[in-house]
Amino acid sequence: MNFLLSYQKRSARVLLSSRRPAVHKPGRWSNILYTGIASLSVGGGLCAVPFQQVENLSHDSLIKRAASLVTDSSTTFLSQTTLALIDAFIEYSKAVHTLDALQKRYLASLGKLTPADEDSIWQVIIGQRAQVNDRQDECKRFESTWVSAVRLCETAAEAAYTSGAEHASITIRTNLQVAQSQVEQARKLSLDADMKLAETKVMEIERLAQYKASLESNNYEEEVPEAYLRED
Fold first, then answer.
1. Which InterPro entries would you find in this protein's record (predicted)?
2. pLDDT at 33
């Protein structure tokens, strides 16, 4: 009888032990939980920054990384638009200087050219004027894009600063200042070219007036090219 009671007690302990849930340490459960959340975030597209040990990355650190990526891409956009705008200003300046030289050459030889030579020069001048207009339109187009890049960099710099990525903010602001300085230098070249062309225009009006007066005084009429007298 005693042997039967002892056997029943041991059987009961074994049965209760088999039904008892396994006990896990809190640290292990935390790792499993964070790993599951991390997998869900990556699979659902909620996190754009790749990582391996999620438990070591806070929201602040992820935001700083994202801000740095934004400043890098914004700087690349700024660099490309700055280069395009500077090249456009330089090409425009070259075109204006060429037009200025052609017009000065024509004024210097006024009254000394044959009708055929005069017509040939004017065809070149008209073509150069068209090229100047094309270059000017190109400058306006690239400048519009460059202004957008500047605004984007200013926004990215502010976002980086507020997120705690001070180094990225300082770097993009420095790059922005350099780009603005380079663009201003190139813009000055185009403005100087415009000024010289305006001076030539004044000289053109005076020279044509003198030439016309000279023809009238000598009772000799020679038609001044209509294309040259028209407004640019």
1. Smac/DIABLO-like_sf (IPR009062), Smac_DIABLO (IPR015142)
2. 31
Round to the nearest angstrom and report the end-to-end CA distance of the chain: 125
pTM of the model: 0.68
Q: How many domains does the chain have?
A: 1
> Could you tell me the CATH number of the domain that includes residue 151?
1.20.58.70
Query: Is 124 inside a domain boundary?
Result: yes
Cα dist from 205 to 103, 148, 162, 200, 231, whole Å: 12, 41, 59, 9, 12
In a domain, 3, yes or no: no
pLDDT in tens, 155-169: 999 999 999 999 999
Q: Which domain holds residue 176?
A: 61-214
pLDDT band at 5 (very low <50, low <70, confident <90, very high): very low
Please check whether residue 189 lies inside any domain of the structure: yes
* Cβ neighbourhood burial of 161 (10 Å; 0-12, 13-18, 19+): middle
46-72: per-residue pLDDT in tens? 344 454 445 567 888 999 999 999 999
Contacts 24+ apart (CB under 8 A), 63-69: 63/163, 63/164, 64/163, 64/164, 64/165, 64/168, 66/163, 67/156, 67/159, 67/160, 67/163, 67/165, 67/168, 68/160, 68/165, 68/168
Q: Any idea what DSSP says for residue 109?
A: T
